[in-house]
Amino acid sequence: MKDSMYSMFAGVPVSTGVLRSALPGLRAPQARLALLQQRGELIPLRRNLYLCSDGRAGYSRGLIANHLLAPSYVSYETVLFQEGLIPERVHVVKSSCLTRSRRFENATGVYDYIRVPQGYYAVGVTMHRTEQGYVYLRATPEKALCDLVLDSVGLRLQSRRAAGIYLDEFLRMDQDARMRLNPEIVAECADASTRKSADLKNIALFLSHERL
């Protein structure tokens, strides 16, 4: 039973109901799930959501983030670091969502969720493939930058020059990696946002001017 369960679910967040279906014929499936947790073979992620662990298969925190709260997509400094745009490693997986902002903590790490406007949510979201071959929703690096700007309290980028200073001095963004950013996606985010639209437009202007 164990081998077949892990072959199906290793590295994938699964619900209590799905796990029970993998334990047919047991009179006390809930007790069996509790025993698997005690053995470290099931990692509780939140209520009624688990990660199968056999000590061999890896897992993706991005995939876990999508399952902890849906709909959501991984974004912010998490994506900017993954793309080599900022130097600081981020230990918290940060995501955008449509519900209230919240935090989850479990054995795999800390996950933060930040609410964004509904009309803005879908712009610049793509599918990212994990090493295990699964996919999860993740912001493009341009959308991740826009999300970070929207969440930065007190930030005012009132000119193209101010946008450049923010990217260079505050984020310490790698200039070579920055050249891969598409200003059109930033401009699209600006048009879709009900907040800090002018700030995002100035970032788009700076990125466009930098390409000249």
Question: Would you kindly provide a written description of the structure presented here, covering whatever features stand out?
Answer:
A four-stranded mixed β-sheet has the order 4-5-7-6, with helices on both faces. A three-stranded antiparallel β-sheet has the order 1-3-2. It has helices at 2-9, 16-21, 29-38, 61-68, 76-82, 118-121, 141-151, 160-170, 175-178, 183-192, 197-210; strands at 13-15, 42-46, 49-52, 72-74, 93-97, 102-106, 109-115, 125-129, 135-139. Strand 2 (42-46) and strand 3 form a beta hairpin. The mean pLDDT is 90. The termini are far apart. The protein is of the alpha+beta class and 212 residues long. Helix 7 packs across helix 10 (183-192) and helix 10 packs antiparallel against helix 11 (197-210). The radius of gyration is 20 Å and the shape is elongated.
Overall mean pLDDT score?
90
Radius of gyration, Cα only, in angstroms? 20 Å
Number of helices: 11
Write down how many β-strands occur, each being a DSSP E stretch of 2 or more residues. 9
Distance between the termini: 61 Å
What structural class results from the helix and strand content?
alpha+beta
The main sheet comes to: 4 strands, mixed
Percentage of residues in strands: 15-25%
Secondary-structure element pattern, one letter each: HEHHEEHEHEEEHEEHHHHH
Helix content bin = 40-55%
Overall shape: it is elongated
Kindly report the spatial arrangement of strands forming the biggest sheet: 4-5-7-6
Low-confidence stretches: none
